[in-house]
Amino acid sequence: MSEEKEKKNEDFEPKIVGFLCNWCSYAGADLAGTSRIQYPPNIRVIRVMCSGSVDSVYVNRALLEGADAVLIGGCHPGDCHYINGNYKARRKMVLLKNILTTLGMEPDRIWLRWISASEGQKFADTVKEIVNETKKLGPNPMKEKWNI
Amino acid sequence: MVMITIDSKEYEAIPGETVLDVAKRNNVFIPTLCHHPSVEPYSACRLCVVGVTQKGWTKVTASCSLLIKEGMEIKTSSPRIDRSRKILMELYLARCPESSELKEVASKLGVDSSRFKTYTEPNEKCILCGLCVNVCEQVMGVGAIGFANRGAAREVIPPFQEHSDVCTTCGACAFVCPTQCIDLSEISTQTPEPLLSDYDAGLAERKAVHIPFPQAIPNVPIIDKDACMYALNGTCKSCENFCEPEAILYDQEDEDININIGSVILSPGADVYEPPEGDSLGYGLYPNVLTSLEFERMLSASGPFQGHIKRLSDGEEPKKIAWLQCIGSRDESCDHKYCSSVCCMYSIKEAVIAKEHLPGLDTHIYFMDMRTFGKDFERYYERAEDEYGVVFRRSRVPRIEQNRETGELSVRYINDNGDVEIESYDMVVLAVGMQPCDTLPDLASIVNVNLNGYGFIEVDPYYNVETSRSGIYASGSATEPKDIPESVIEASAAAAIAARDIKDARGSEVTTKEYPRERDVSNEFPRTGVFLCHCGINIGGIIDIQKVKEYVQRLPYVALADDETFSCSQDSLERIKERINELGLNRIVVASCTPRTHEPLFQDTLREAGLNPHLFEMVNLRDQNSWVHRDNPVLATEKAKETVAMGVVRVNEMRAVSHEKFPVVQKALVIGGGISGMSSAIALSDQGFDVYLIEREEELGGLSRDVHLGIGDEDPQKLLEEMISKTTEHENISLYTGAILEDIDGYVGNYTSRISHEGTTETIEHGAVVVATGGEAYEPTEYSYEDSENIITQKEFEKDLASGKKYLGDLKEVVMIQCVGSRNDEHPYCSRICCSNAIKNAVRLKENNPDVSVYVLYRDIRTYGFKEDSLYRKARGKGVFFIKFDENEEPQVDLKKGKITVQTKDKILQRDMILNPDKLVLSVGVVPGENTALAQQLKVPLNSDGFYSEAHMKLRPVEFSADGIFLCGLAHSPRFMDEAIAQARAASSRAATILSKEYLETGGSVANIASRRCAGCKLCVNICPYDALDYDEEKRIVIVNEILCQGCGACAAICPSGTAQQNSFTKRQIMSMIDECIR
């Protein structure tokens, strides 16, 4: 059983939903492009103005619909374009991870990263890391039909 | 136009093209190793063989040299072709198994290893593709290398296998070589010199065509004419073959442009000091001795090593790094007698970041005085020492030696006990200072301004952005070494004064663009037009745009899906406009590059076509797709389909956002009538704005009334007098002394304030606020200050000096104690000015009475910038004694029968000293004023020391994060008069950006709260960082102030009922985007 599962894990291509703030992380992702740094095509980016505007509901929706991982990318602490939105995001995600754990879901599918506009390499590395780690976790079980 | 068939699909081709050209243009894969667009086809590698059927005959031939003919039928793959490619590929792989280019092609052909014997000799790597020979001859026109011998002995060599003297070491051969087997030093008699990137401090190479640095404006490549082979000898022109829009202009020349101007600002910056190569510090000699700028690039995530710290000698991670301070600063031997002001802070920063990158790293900083004098800098210094474990050693290091075997660098220093010790490091960073930029003398002679004795631009001692010539201003490190916050402040100050000179011309050169009336689409169903951009081959070369187009056409509400080579070209924009009008499109998606650069352009096109610019969405197919998924066209195309679909569902939900105009009251309120407040009021009124200036006391001047001596010959009291008369006489300034701000209401552009003044209350309206409430001198309780009239503060002593009190001539011994009320638990910051003030007074006393002994007891002497030379060095020259004490062993003061005894331990000599001064002068620090009440009235923050907190230390040093409120002077942090004046002028400049507008526009992606659904829970009110949400007590709902709202969306994320929404980023939009990408 476990062997079978492992094989399945290696084959599958995780789907990542990324919420990137307009000022830092989205710009960092652009820089990865202008620097031609290659990373796996598993991420779908939704541009938001600030990581603090990412409602926990969005993350829940993505995970319930079957996204294998969710990335929230914000400015480094102290660098938020909107003073402190990234701290709001951090607080929210800590709470959300706790709640998801009590509900029996995997909190490791939520990633919060600070990526500045000059960190194209970090963005690419982050996506690679998420893909690798998510492959270890396996597909999001929420994707399968519910057996009740 | 000719039609040919490749793999049963028809393609258009231009006569003269080869089959490979057509295939490449249409993204049909044919492998090749010896093809390059600049070189004539040579058909050497034979990997590009294809099957050609003509008139019933089929043959297999190289596609790179096969010219197309009408009706040609090409097969790019068949068992026979595949077999021959695979066997060739295995042979190549056997020749050079390590080449990444070969491996890439091999993996595409399904070859992962070779059955043949693998070569290991490096000179056997050549696969004889001929690219190098052809590039050298055809493109570079040199012909320095060629083929020699036949059969198995065939090789590429310079003639007679001797070093060629015609080779120009241009490097084209090495660049095109697929196996990287060319070593230029084996070909040429010249030594090849790599082109080094200035931006990466010479740690990385760059090309002749390059973008100088990622943030360059405009962000387009430039050709370095000193390195371009075409500019040098008329050859190459290869880049032309790759630039599809034909944007390269080889013959572009510098041109003279005449512009009429009213004022000039000089901001050329400074140069970094370059340590002489091979001196006792071994820079340039030992590879692991770096300058701080080189180390800074190494630390940077966008730097040459992606932020990895490694030794240049062997690429190993260092375990121990030392920083040596004052390299090229405070050093007479290189004629830099000044302090560069910034090095202490940046070294601490580098040490801290290095420790974060490499846990367990030892970082030691060798310094003379730690000069962390800026706002919140002292705290950073303490944290570096206490939390991060950065080790600080007070010793100047004269010499570095390298161990030849290990590459370790040994540093000789003097420890706390005065003994010489030697410590080894893996890496040493030289904290280099600043020097005037080498073009400054030329610039100064062109604009006819004076340079000072240090080679920087000479400026007025108080108005430090004004040069020797009126109308010409200067800012930043061109006038004195300084850090980013001070440079930004001076830049704004210079702008304020430059704007004063040309205030009558404000806005006279602005032309407003006229747009057609916006079409109301609120009652229409979405009719969405999707425009896909190929961006030449940038997107189209990877992503199958046709497939994306077919997919998009079937999406809901999509009325049109179109593709363009360059969507941003003028004719494409015209076509978008035509299509909007023809088809009645009311939502537009452009899928191309990034909204960060091109969104405004397309939004403008929408406006020109009569659509609201918010009915638009841009999908990133290039920067976040084709450029980063080059190796995976299939998945990149899938990603493109999904992201465009996400864009479509978002744009379908877009609503027009209107921009409302609110009038601005073009007047300012300045709170505080000290030097800062008056400077700000004068600068604002000089720019043509009415100013209300309120001062709590009956008299103007504030703390500056106690400053009697300047650092040079200047007279601070004369300056104050002039400023007071200018303030009282200025027709635009309404002055209220003895006045208090009762309350203030409103928002940027529209404030209403009540001022109580002479027993009456007056209501005023204004559009901006400048906080210039100043600070206060610390009232000492330590060192028996209150017990003797011979123990006085520096302020009192300065007054006596200025008035020439008689007792000064009789003094035999004077002791000054520094850091009284600064850098302690109660006031953990540095007051910045006390060192210079004390030394200024000490020098003055010595000048009047050379026989007096003056002892300055200090912790660090912080005479930054030119004050290092004009005060500290001068004082030591005059025989002032400087005695360092430890922060834990403060001097002890005893008073017996009026006799003062000061006992202290000299930290450098490690000796106890007892002094009996006639006068003990305490250098007291600056403390914040009573700021709490005003901070609450204005809803602006204070820092933990009690000074006001600016919006951003570096980028917005004179602004609060709340729009419309500005700060300057001691309200911000302790500073000198010239610095306070610059800051006041800067605040006026920032305020003028609001006051110069007649209207402020609201709108964009601001918050939106539907009144009938708001429950009035006020969660959003509390989370809003801009106070843009007001609770209406009567209606019990929250109202959005669209002028204050910056559109961060925090309220939308916290609203429990989903009532608070962000325009253009509504929950519905984002939810449907999530659904779309996971479906």
Overall description:
The complex is a heterodimer of chains A (148) and B (1079). Chain A has 148 residues and is an alpha/beta fold. Chain A has a single domain, classed as Lumazine/riboflavin synthase (Rossmann fold, 3-Layer(aba) Sandwich). Chain A is 45% helix and 16% strand. Chain A is built from five helices and four strands, in the order H-E-H-E-H-E-H-E-H. Chain A has helices at residues 2-11, 25-34, 56-65, 85-102, 120-137, and strands at 16-21, 43-48, 69-74, 110-114. In chain A, strands 2-1-3-4 form a four-stranded parallel β-sheet, with helices on both faces. In chain A, helix 2 (25-34) links the parallel strand 1 and strand 2 (43-48). In chain B, the strands form 16 sheets. In chain B, strands 2-1-5-3-4 form a five-stranded mixed β-sheet, with helices on one face. In chain B, strands 12-19-13-14-15 form a five-stranded parallel β-sheet. Chain B has a five-stranded parallel β-sheet with strand order 29-28-27-33-44, covered by helices on one side. Chain B has 1079 residues and is α/β, with parallel strands linked by helices. Chain B folds into seven domains: 2-182, Ubiquitin-like (UB roll) (Roll), CATH 3.10.20.740; 194-248, no CATH class; 270-436, FAD/NAD(P)-binding domain, CATH 3.50.50.60; 528-652, Rossmann fold (3-Layer(aba) Sandwich), CATH 3.40.50; 663-774 and 946-1000, FAD/NAD(P)-binding domain; 777-928, 3-Layer(bba) Sandwich (FAD/NAD(P)-binding domain), CATH 3.50.50; 1002-1078, Alpha-Beta Plaits. In chain B, a hairpin with a 2-residue loop joins strand 1 and strand 2. Chain B starts with a strand and ends with a helix. The longest helix of chain B has 20 residues, at 633-652. Chain B contains 27 helices and 49 strands. Classes of the chains: A alpha/beta (148), B alpha/beta (1079). Chains A and B meet through helix 2, strand 2, helix 3, helix 4 and helix 5 of A and helix 16, helix 17, helix 26 and helix 27 of B.
